[in-house]
Amino acid sequence: MSTKTIAILATLDTKAEEAAWVKDRIEALGGKALLIDLGVVGQPGIAPDVSREEVAEAGGKPLAQLLASPTRQEASPVMIAGATKLLLAKVEAGDVHGVLGMGGTQGTSNGCAILQALPYGLPKVMVSTVASGDTSSFVGIKDIAMFPAVGDLLGLNPFTRRILANAAGAVWGMAQVESVPVAPKGDKPLIGMTNLGVLTEGAMHAVERFRERGYEVIVFHAVGAGGLAMEQMMKEGIIGAVFDYALGEISDELFHGLRAANSERLTVAASLGLPQVLCPGGAEHIGLLVEPNQVPEAWKDHQVVFHNPIILAPRLSTEQWCQVAREIGKRLQGVTGKTVMMLPHKGTSRYGIDGGPLCDHASDEVFFAALREALPGSVEVIDRNLAAEDPDFVDEAVDRLIGLVEG
């Protein structure tokens, strides 16, 4: 195994003993450790490789200035920015091959903010006292492995030694992985594709068709984080073409569903000039987290189906559906070309086809008309008397995207 360097993020005034143990474990495995001090107020209990003074300076404010009237509110953004800047430079130079952070609530928040800024594929581990609950705000859309500390990180004992040794072994082991680049192989761009459970058969068919043509595909579950991760990978140059098959994240953002993304969703490919084929798949309904098998009062006059006992999928009214159309059109105003919108008139998801629990073709037609009106003229619109999962519909979507890439 080759020697790799693991950066350790810790506040060395309160976590020096733990950081020293992790450093020893990494070195015992044959690696190198780079201690980065994120502390501000207390004195470090072990000598860092990157001092808090260096981190603060890189973050745009001298440590002495932070110490004049120290508050977490002022210090955290500076230390996060500084550590991020320094780490990104070291990763880019090939000097750091993995990062391990540790902490309680504050340490987890600061450490994970730094980890979220690092490239996909770089090993990232956070040992945290708050990793047993909802970690979505800490992980975000990045590939961060959360290790529950179980006990508090306040000094070493037989239990915390083992937990920290496991985490050190995990990040060091990840760093040994060779020849598995995130970037696409060859000269064909990596394709990003969104999907929902009500479109999975079509998505599987699309992946197979892309593979037959020599393209690899990353499929994202379009439940908020999925769409955002896809667009982040566009920004990082990982994804070079897009089949945005499932646009339910837009509907959920407008009507407070659990699949909501954010206001940037659906704007990134256009801003980067990437070729894209879109379909309003799964956007006729939203997803709501509910009490088992209970329909909220506000949705009792809508067509509904339970995706499972605690997730309700109510169909939008025609007016709500048209609001989605206008929002999609608004977000695509920056498109200058290489964009196709495909409209499946026999159903935008499995729920909306003939016999489906949310079927309403009359409402669909009003939506399609509203979408046509809202889209800029630079978007080519294709109408097909097919459902979104029909193989012929998917085949054409795949062919058109490849045509935009290779044309």
TrEMBL record:
NCBIfam families: PRK02399.1-2 (NF002674). Residues 4-178, 188-403 form the UPF0261 domain. CDD domains: Tm-1-like. It comes from the Bacteria. InterPro entries: Tobamovirus_resist_UPF0261, UPF0261, UPF0261_C, UPF0261_N. This is Uncharacterized protein. It comes from Engelhardtia mirabilis.
